[in-house]
């Protein structure tokens, strides 16, 4: 049996779905670790493109005569496009696979990055930021891909690293764009031409990453969607049912709200923080960019740390551990956000901003430690809803607190922290019958099992045709979400059920 469940073609140990049960960060073994590296690099490229304008705003606003309202609108536009794109991306992943869905979107949005170099008015600047922002939907394909490649015990870690290292683009662009701009200007270009030429660097990076995903990527451990569907190994699912089971699962909506005020806050900070330090503390453009970069660059370890914490808590306390860790970390992030708006010195602001950034990014990783378990059939839709929630949060936050002059940036930051604390409270309502919720254990019903939960997404005629078999394997591999304590106390008879093969 061992040879059957773990064929020699995989370099990493796998479970019965051929998902990797180990996460080896510095490996590039196909298909699991190769998919990981392709996903985070392509997502990073999209992040760099989407926020390339932010550190150059003081130059761009002088060139295009942008008002503070124009800048606020453009910031909102940069994250609003991805709201619906993320939901659509989730569905596309469910139906066509993450490889095609991701590379197609990256190539479709790349021209907008090139066109940034010819923006000549507030309207055209807003439009290029809007269309470039669609590329942020590649986050959904990144998380879907990791959830398709990695098993329950390590899926939080894989999602955390892929999302976190991709989000590094928010910090990297704060360093990269001022540097590229300076080099082009020093070569001899005037500053109003130099910022335009600088946009060709992120545009080229984004284009090349799309071709890498297309050429070297693979949808699932056993192959691409198209080949698996053609051979009959993967049934072609119906869009209507995939969509239905995704949007009717209330847990997805709560996670979308939670994510709106961790990732949404992170996106908002990427847009405003360089300008905030530049204006409030009268810093040089390059210095403000470096301080702002430290916020985004914390993703190198903070979001992966959140994913890792989620897996560690799940090992001991099951799904309930994942939910408690998410609530605690996000609430603490909100507290530090409130403090950031109150402190008045440069050194204190930097220290508090870094602590706040680490917590808010860890909360993002913790959120996607829970997402893969909400639905097996509609994983992409739930991932898209949650990811889209992040963008909705960013749009609302910027619209309410950082558009025009109604609030000072300090007041806006404080109010944003209060919103974070409030929007983490609905996590108390998430309940899985087979694992429990934050305040109560699993259901005492005889049949409240992983199998029953995931089988409820399939009709009897679909089960007759074997469409549910992948969900059955997933249910078997999700037994580990009971945790060591819960499993020994509530279900001693099931303790031998394998978490992975």
UniProtKB/TrEMBL annotation:
Keyword field contains Cell inner membrane: no
Q: Where in the cell is it found?
A: Endomembrane system
Q: Which family does it belong to?
A: Belongs to the major facilitator superfamily. Nitrate/nitrite porter (TC 2.A.1.8) family.
Q: What's its membrane topology?
A: Multi-pass membrane protein
One example GO MF annotation: nitrate transmembrane transporter activity
Does the keyword DNA damage feature in the UniProt annotation?
no
BP-aspect Gene Ontology terms: nitrate assimilation
Domain of life where this protein originates:
Eukaryota
Q: Where is the composition biased (Polar residues)?
A: 490-501
Protein name per its UniProtKB record: High affinity nitrate transporter 2.5
Q: Where is this region: Disordered?
A: 479-501
User: Which segments cross the bilayer?
Assistant: 40-59, 95-114, 126-145, 165-185, 197-217, 323-344, 350-374, 381-401, 413-432
Per the record, the major location class is membrane
Q: Which UniProt keywords apply?
A: Membrane, Nitrate assimilation, Transmembrane, Transmembrane helix
Output the Gene Ontology cellular-component terms.
endomembrane system; membrane
A single Pfam family it belongs to is MFS_1
């Amino acid at each position: 049996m061992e040879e059957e469940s773990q064929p020699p073609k995989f370099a990493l140990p796998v479970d019965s779905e051929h998902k990797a049960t180990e996460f080896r960060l510095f490996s590039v073994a196909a298909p699991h670790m190769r998919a990981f590296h392709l996903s985070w690099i392509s997502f990073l490229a999209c992040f760099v493109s989407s926020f390339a304008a932010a550190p150059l705003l003081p130059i761009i606003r002088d060139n295009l005569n942008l008002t503070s309202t124009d800048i606020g609108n453009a910031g909102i536009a940069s994250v609003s496009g991805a709201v619906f794109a993320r939901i659509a991306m989730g569905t596309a992943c469910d139906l066509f696979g993450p490889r095609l869905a991701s590379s197609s979107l990256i190539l479709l949005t790349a021209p907008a990055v090139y066109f940034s170099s010819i923006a000549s008015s507030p309207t055209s600047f807003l439009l290029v930021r809007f269309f470039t922002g669609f590329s942020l939907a590649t986050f959904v394909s990144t998380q879907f891909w990791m959830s398709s490649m990695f098993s329950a015990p390590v899926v939080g870690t894989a999602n955390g690293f892929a999302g976190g290292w991709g989000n590094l683009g928010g910090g990297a662009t704060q360093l990269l764009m001022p540097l590229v701009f300076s080099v082009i200007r020093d070569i001899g270009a005037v500053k109003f031409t130099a910022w335009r030429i600088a946009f060709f660097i992120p545009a080229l990076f984004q284009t090349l990453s799309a071709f890498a995903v297309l050429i070297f990527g693979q949808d699932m451990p056993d192959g691409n969607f198209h080949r698996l569907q053609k051979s009959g190994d993967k049934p072609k699912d119906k869009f209507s049912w995939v969509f239905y089971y995704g949007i009717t699962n209330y847990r997805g909506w709560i996670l979308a709200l939670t994510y709106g005020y961790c990732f949404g806050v992170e996106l908002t900070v990427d847009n405003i923080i360089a300008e905030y330090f530049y204006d409030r503390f009268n810093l040089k453009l390059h210095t403000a960019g470096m301080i702002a970069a430290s916020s985004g660059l914390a993703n190198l370890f903070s979001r992966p740390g959140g994913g890792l914490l989620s897996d560690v808590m799940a090992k001991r306390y099951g799904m309930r551990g994942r939910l408690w860790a998410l609530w605690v970390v996000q609430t603490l992030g909100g507290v530090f956000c409130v403090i950031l708006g109150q402190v008045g010195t440069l050194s204190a602001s930097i220290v508090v901003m870094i602590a706040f950034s680490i917590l808010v990014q860890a909360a993002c990783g913790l959120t996607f430690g829970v997402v893969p378990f909400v639905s097996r059939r509609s994983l992409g839709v739930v991932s898209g809803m949650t990811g889209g929630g992040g963008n909705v949060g960013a749009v609302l936050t910027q619209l309410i607190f950082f558009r025009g002059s109604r609030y000072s940036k300090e007041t806006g930051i404080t109010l944003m922290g209060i919103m974070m604390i409030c929007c983490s409270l609905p996590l108390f309502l998430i309940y899985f019958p087979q694992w429990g919720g934050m305040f109560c254990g699993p259901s005492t019903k005889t049949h409240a099992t992983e199998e029953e939960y995931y089988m409820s997404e399939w009709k009897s005629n679909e089960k007759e045709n074997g469409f549910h078999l992948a969900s059955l394997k997933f249910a078997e591999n999700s037994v580990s979400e009971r945790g060591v304590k819960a499993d020994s106390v509530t279900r001693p008879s099931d303790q031998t059920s394998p978490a992975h093969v």
